[in-house]
Amino acid sequence: xxxxxxxxxxxxxxxxxxxxxxxxxxxxxxxxxxxxxxxxxxxxxxxxxxxxxxxxxxxxxxxxxxxxxxxxxxxxxxxxxxxxxxxxxxxxxxxxxxxxxxxxxxxxxxxxxxxxxxxxxxxxxxxxxxxxxxxxxxxxxxxxxxxxxxxxxxxxxxxxxxxxxxxxxxxxxxxxxxxxxxxxxxxxxxxxxxxxxxxxxxxxxxxxxxxxx
Length: 213
What we know:
- 38% of the residues lie in helices and 12% in strands.
- The longest helix has 21 residues, at 102-122.
- The two termini are 32 Å apart.
- Strands 3-5-4-6 form a 4-stranded mixed β-sheet.
- β1 (12-15), α1 and β2 form a beta-alpha-beta unit.
- The protein has a domain at 59-204: Spore Coat Polysaccharide Biosynthesis Protein SpsA, Chain A (Alpha-Beta Complex), CATH 3.90.550.
- The chain is built from 8 helices and 6 strands.
- α7 (153-163) runs parallel beside α8 (190-204).
- The chain is α/β, with parallel strands linked by helices.
């Protein structure tokens, strides 16, 4: 979190009922701590956006896998006026987390399949639709009407952006080995596949609009 302060004037940490000293340490490091009820990642992002006062916000996972040094790359297209939403790509920038085992293989394959469908539906050429590391215009996020409560928020945000006619860009970002925590995506649980399938189907069926501004 301290690394993020080199590139942002304000850091908001959403604390979802941790039993360690996360909230206290984050506050001591200079972050604004917002507490939620641990309803999921999507719920946390939507709660955080209520407290954002800047025109552009950057989402960073708290497990240390995202390298804050890439933040300027993410916000540059928005500041240049060429994009409204910029996602980081681990396929372009490399990942120390996405390869190596059976679970990683399934995650990679599933991500590639979802990205392929999004590309075909919206006529784009993305390489990574599941990375949580991204920047977006604050007003755009608030207009998207996102409903995902969990990790499906990432792909819903992309599909909603494209369907609404906003400009989406992708830049290479590197994923480091996570410093803490573990993936909350349980690939052995049928609910995971159901939630991703439902969100994907709903997003792909969004009516396209070219009236974004």
